[in-house]
Amino acid sequence: MAYRRTDNVEAHLADNRKRILAAARSLVSEGGWPEAQISHVAAVAGVATGTVYRYFPSKAELFVEVLSTVSQREVDVLDVIAGGAESPQQRLHDAVTAFVRRAMRNRRLAYALIAEPCDPEIDQARLRYRHAISEQIVRIVGDGQASGAFRADLDARVVATVIVGGFMEGLIGPLSPLNADFGSPPHHSGAVRTLAEDIADLCCAAVAPRRGKVSLLVPTVATRGRSR
Question: Smallest Cα–Cα separation from 76: which of 18, 157, 126, 135?
Fold first, then answer.
């Protein structure tokens, strides 16, 4: 007769896994990837080091799971915004501000997920979720192009890639552990709100319809000579 795990055993195993992931996330939130050593994770989770390896054969696999869990939540938030009934401009603005504000709620964790040097496996997971985030922006940009709200002469996927790269790059400085500008309320909340609005405004401006081409006049040698 084949052995079958009881419901209690399954629940215990699932609980251990959740505790390990929660411990790893907590440690990354405190000190980034270097803080989440397997021995530290085991101690915080209240399990033996060998138990951690039972669920996650390597530290990289544990880290990828942490990144995937947190990143999927951000994708889900953007998915709701992208499918909303608001105008494309409002949805794009809301998507960017939501991402920025949520990242700034836990700066150390967000910095680890977005910018901190890491193992190749983690970096590959980053790229997968950046692509998933870009797909949500593609939806919004496509709607805006179809309605005439956004420039239609640009490839929506290129636009989304630039926008996502832009708001993530714009967050690196504010998220950095060395940045003290966002450290203490109440200034913190106002500064985050301004940061989110500024980044979102710039992203929206990138796809706004042209109101007329600007001609750049480059003076010739003769022209420069006459102006003297």
Answer: 135
Question: What string of pLDDT tens digits covers the 228 residues of the chain?
Answer: 454 556 565 566 678 999 999 999 999 999 999 999 999 999 999 999 999 999 999 999 999 999 999 999 999 999 999 999 999 999 999 999 999 999 999 999 999 999 999 899 999 999 999 999 999 999 999 999 999 999 999 999 999 999 999 999 999 999 999 887 776 554 478 899 999 999 999 999 999 998 755 443 444 444 444 444
> Structure tokens of 104?
């700034």
Running DSSP on this structure, what letter comes out for residue 114?
A: H
> Is 214 among the domain residues?
no
Statement to judge: residues 29 and 105 lie in one domain = no
Q: How far apart, in whole angstroms, are the C-alpha atoms of residue 168 and residue 173? A: 10
Angle at 131 between CA 127 and CA 133, to 5 degrees: 115
The number of CA neighbours under 13 Å toward the Cβ of 84 is 19
pTM, rounded to two decimals: 0.83
Looking at the domain assignment, is residue 228 inside a domain?
no
Residues in the chain: 228
For residue 2, the enclosing domain spans 1-57
99 & 153 share domain = yes
Spatial separation of the C-alpha atoms in residues 31 and 106, rounded to whole Å: 11
